[in-house]
Amino acid sequence: MPELNDALSRLHSALNEFLQAQPGPEEGPGPEEQQAARRIQDLEAQLREQAQALAAARDELDREVRGRERMDRLQAARMKVLEQVMGSGTLERCLDVLLEQMAEIFPEHPASVLLLDPVHNCLRVGATLGLPPSYSALMEGMKLEPGGSGSVEACRSGRRVVVDRLETQPSWPLVRELALNVGFSACWSEPILAATGEVLGVFGIYAKAPESHDERHLELLTEASRLAGLVIEHRRGWEQRLQVEKMDALGVLAGGIAHDFNNILSAILSAAELIEWQLEADSPARSKLEIIYKAGQRARELNQQVLSFSRRAEEKRIPFDLSAVVKEVAALLRATLPEAIRIHSDIASSVWVMGDPGQLHQVIMNLAVNGYQALKQQGGTLSLGLAEFEEPGAPRMALLTVGDTGAGMSQAVRERIFEPFFTTKPEGQGTGLGLSVVHGIVHKHGGSIQVDSEPGQGARFQVAIPCQPPQPRAPFELATEVQGGSEHILFVDDEDIVTALAKEGLQALGYQVTAKTSAFDALEVFKAKPDSFDLLVTDLDMPSLSGAELTRRMRRIRPDLPALLVTGAFQAPDSPLGLTVSFAEILGKPLFTKDLARAVRRAMDSCRLKPPSLGSIDKAFAQADPAPEANGPLVLFAEDSKVTRSLIGSWLAKGGYRVLEARDGQAAWESYCAAPDPSCFSLLVTDLDMPRMSGLELVERVRGRDPQMPVLVLTASADMEALNQVLLLHVNEFLNKPFDSQVLLEHVRRLMAERKSRQVSRRFAETAQAVRLAQRTMEAMPEPDLPVYSICEPLTDAGGDVFRCIRHADGSVLLVLADVAGHSVLSSYAVASFLGMLSSFAQDGPDLVELFQRLNQNIQGGPFPETAIAVLGAHWDLATGRMHLVNAGNPYGIWHRRSLARTEQVVLRGTPLGLFDQTRLSEKVLVLEPGDRMLFGTDGLFDTLSPDRAFFRDRVPGLWQQLASRPIQQALGALCDAAKQHGAGRITDDLLVVGLEQPPWTPAPNQLLRTYSSVAGSTDRADRELKELLAGHPLDRSSRFSLSLALHEALNNGMEHGNGGDPGKRIALDCRLSGDTVQVRVVDEGPGFALEAWKPEISNVSERHRGLAILHRATAGLRMRGGELEFQIDLKGAEHDCQS
Amino acid sequence: MTANPDPFDIEVQGTTLRLVALGPLVASVVAAQRAALRELMKRAGQAVVLDLTAAELVDSLGITLIVGLYKTCQERKLAFSVAGANPEVLRLFRFFRLNEIFEIRGQ
């Protein structure tokens, strides 16, 4: 304040001059002058003190303003980064955006995000801004070893490292030299932490001149690293989910390939069998055939592994000799591995275990291949061992050992090595699934696995599995053991070779065989002479008609027809994909003729012994099974990607739905038209981009026939134009790829349920437009001139939470938080509809309860009558702090009371609107004192992140109090972050949080606005202060008496009954003189009471009865709502009030 | 002769105990006086007179106090009356029909 100081100096000089210029006694100033001078000096000192205080206040204010601006910018930056995270940006792009946003705040500071590579124990450059390439290159791959750099130290310690003067920093010589060369003089590094506290990387800021860090830098560091943590965790999680989806799709693909492969194997093995039957017993070709059998058997087991990977295989549980499997792997490795890798094996003979030979073969192979990978570069020894061991009191175990002399593993790698998708191999060279699969298989066999390894010491895996007693070996089965017959068999398989070979083999055994490669041809033949066939043998998976459906149709003609089912994708009878039609046996491919012949014989003999039983294997056969009599709603599903179609079809089938799959829109439309009754379809699920006919056209056509058909659109496209067009067709749901089966089935189930209850919706185009409007309104809405802030993070694009702030002409505002049930497009329609009603009814500022009742009526009478909408309304008069709250099903509010240094819940319940004709509302009136803060939120914040509400109940009040000194916007952000951390970032509902702060009161001149403690004496004080307010108003004795009496009764009631006589509770009084009327509002902290329930009595029953009787007689317009007692006193008409 | 539990003056005139209110009989002053007043009743011989000349205001708690005094007198078979009530207080008593229970005299 130099100007003020100058002014003071000038004033001081002028006064001195004035005093000196005064005539006085020659001996100097007299006592009066001295006194005056002292007073001037005192005044001067006081002025200086005030000037200093003023300057300090101004500096503080400046800091506050700058801080708020910085927080606003940080908030904007956070929103941009989060937008990027929620969008399709890669990790690198998200980090780039983060740095760009931080540069907006500190443009002069280069910055970097370095990611921790735990496998190689080093840093990787994630993103940089303004960093010279040489510096980035130095950082890339920098080991986490002492003396590396500030970033390394921050990463190692998990703590912030701040260096304000690099040139004086003795550590990190290499980095310091380069940093100084490129012009960096200071650097600050903040570790990037995951929600679990794990270090993910480090955020660094650099300064080009020596610079002391201050609060701003630290704030930026904290925020930026926090955001970086969010970005990294989110994107990595997303990528992992994507990988899972890819693996699922790959599984489906592999399953399909394995199915075809089984058909080929069937042909080879069946042909070999037929040749064997034709050979003489001593033919030298028999040994060759045995090789074909063994190779075929191995191929069959490998195929089972593929099916196992795609989760389609039956898991065997048989006793077998594990040593034979280990020896086979050893032989295979010797034949295939380079000479630089020595194979050492020590395999005990005859070690029997119970389990699946194919799966354990896979275990040994995966471990051996893992060892080979470790030895590939420099060679070494790969060892395979198998032994039995027994410890006292424990079962005998088989111990399988696979070791290598390679580079070994660090502890960090060892700890994660069995995690799915964890790999130390270069990108694209490993799925990270091998050891995870091994781990799973070993545990399924009741075993355990452990790994011993140190860097440079190689690795040794030890697998222990319970042993079984040895079993006698099965003799090689000869063809002569197969028994034939003469029955007539109808054999159906779409594979020509398989059909021809099966026919030849069965005919060779004496059977009469009719073989067909088309299910429809077989059906025609059967229809012509149904009684001429003794047995049906059918493939399951045929393009025109499934084997199950073929059997079902034949049994409509001949219910006792025995049947055998052959399938390439073998399902265990108790697997989720069972069958609804019964089969005598189910045979897996590849099929040996002798196995088929034995099954045929058993089926025929069984038929002779007992009548056929059709219900022996009744299971839900859901896949590709549109038969009307089958269970489960029928879904028409159009998707042009075979893999996706198969994957999603299987998900739907697992969910209990029958699925009619179509390869594109045209095929789906043809299926729809061909159906005898199109209403048999309960749901249309369709992709958008498809050849021949798009999903858009398909939806339009189907909706043209059946406007109520629920439609779920699957899309990976960001084509807004197409999405808008689909909106016009009133699509019920969108699902953006990728998604998992749980999400899909959840949506499908909801649509099915809605189909039952929903009426035809109206005005598609208008509603769709409203949806888009609703989407926009759900964004956080700043109120620049109001101390109200909100954070809204919808779970999906079609969120259901919305916040509105409606200003009234009298300066008060109406805040509305609404949570529309669901997160679907339908919810958005309901949001749009609700907002329309709100804007229509709320602008005139009606009574809040009346507003809610009107909303309730209109929701029920509107287009979405069964939609529950939880609504909290707060009518807030900023001038007086009065806040009238009405709640219908939203969570409590949190009230931080500054003057009491206390934070408490404002308990309000109520029933969501839209459900009942007479909805139950909960209301409360608060008087917010200056500096008080309120926090409101929808259930998303509290329920999804803390299902037991423990976070909300136990933590939020404390947090809201702790954050009271921070700008409210920042406090809201911190609260949301804390909530997310509590819920480990898993959000399953929209988040909407609103915070507000009461500004200073501005009572009118004719208004008394005070709060009092609930203690004796407060009533008398209030009475005095009211009389002071009315001092200028002529009051007769009677009016004065009535006024005092009413005030006493109202305050007594509030203190004794509303506040329970608790001196810590406040009572607020608001009296306003208007003409000859005094309007009085007395607000206590209690929930309020129904006046009518307290019938005024003039008897001597209780003080409260008497008090209410007095109030009724002495006042007009007496009303109680939510703890607020309101009445008027007519100062001219009061005289007659209390007269009997 | 007198005990003086504020806000009352106590005067014993022969067999009559006279309680003289020194100010309003309202919540802030009456709550603590009930027990003390009941104790004072023991000094009364035959009658109790409550003098409200200085009681500008009587609220519902004040009325409770007065009704309590009346009941205590009933139990002790003492006559009870109110004197000196201002017109507004008088109207309030009439409103509660206390004038039908015991004697009330105005100023």
Count of helix runs of chain A: 30
The average pLDDT value of chain A, as a whole number, equals: 78
The helicity of chain A comes to 40-55%
**Largest sheet entry of chain B:** 5 strands, mixed
Structural class call of chain A reads: alpha+beta
Q: Which consecutive residue ranges of chain A, at least 5 long each, have pLDDT under 50?
A: 473-480, 570-579, 609-630, 757-770, 1134-1140
Quote the beta fraction of chain B: 25-35%
As a percent range, the share of helical residues of chain B equals 25-40%
Low-confidence stretches of chain B: 1-5
Radius of gyration of chain B equals 12 Å
Question: What is the spatial order of strands in the main beta sheet of chain B?
Answer: 1-2-3-4-5
Number of strands of chain B: 5
Shape of chain A: extended
Largest sheet of chain A: 5 strands, antiparallel
Helix-strand topology string of chain B: EEHHEHEHE
In whole angstroms, the N-to-C terminal distance of chain A is 69 Å
Structural class of chain B: alpha/beta
In short:
Chain A has 1140 residues and is of the alpha+beta class.
Summarize this structure as a short list of keywords or feature phrases:
heterodimer, A: 1140 residues, five-stranded antiparallel β-sheet, 30 helices, extended, disordered C terminus, B: 107 residues, alpha/beta, five-stranded mixed β-sheet, 34% helix, 26% strand, disordered N terminus
Describe this structure in words.
- The complex is a heterodimer of chains A (1140) and B (107).
- Chain A has 1140 residues and is α+β, with helices and mostly antiparallel strands.
- Chain A is built from 30 helices and 37 strands.
- Chain A has a 5-stranded antiparallel β-sheet, with helices on both faces.
- In chain A, strand 36 (1116-1121) and strand 37 (1124-1130) form a beta hairpin.
- The model of chain A is unreliable at 473-480, 570-579, 609-630, 757-770 and 1134-1140 (pLDDT under 50).
- Chain B has 107 residues and is of the alpha/beta class.
- Chain B contains 4 helices and 5 strands.
- Chain B has helices at residues 27-30, 34-40, 60-75, 87-95, and strands at 8-13, 16-21, 47-51, 79-85, 103-106.
- A 5-stranded mixed β-sheet of chain B has the order 1-2-3-4-5.
- In chain B, strand 1 and strand 2 (16-21) form a beta hairpin.
- The longest helix of chain B has 16 residues, at 60-75.
- Chain B starts with 7 loop residues before the first strand and ends with a strand.
- At the A-B interface, helix 28, helix 29 and helix 30 of A face helix 1, helix 3 and helix 4 of B.
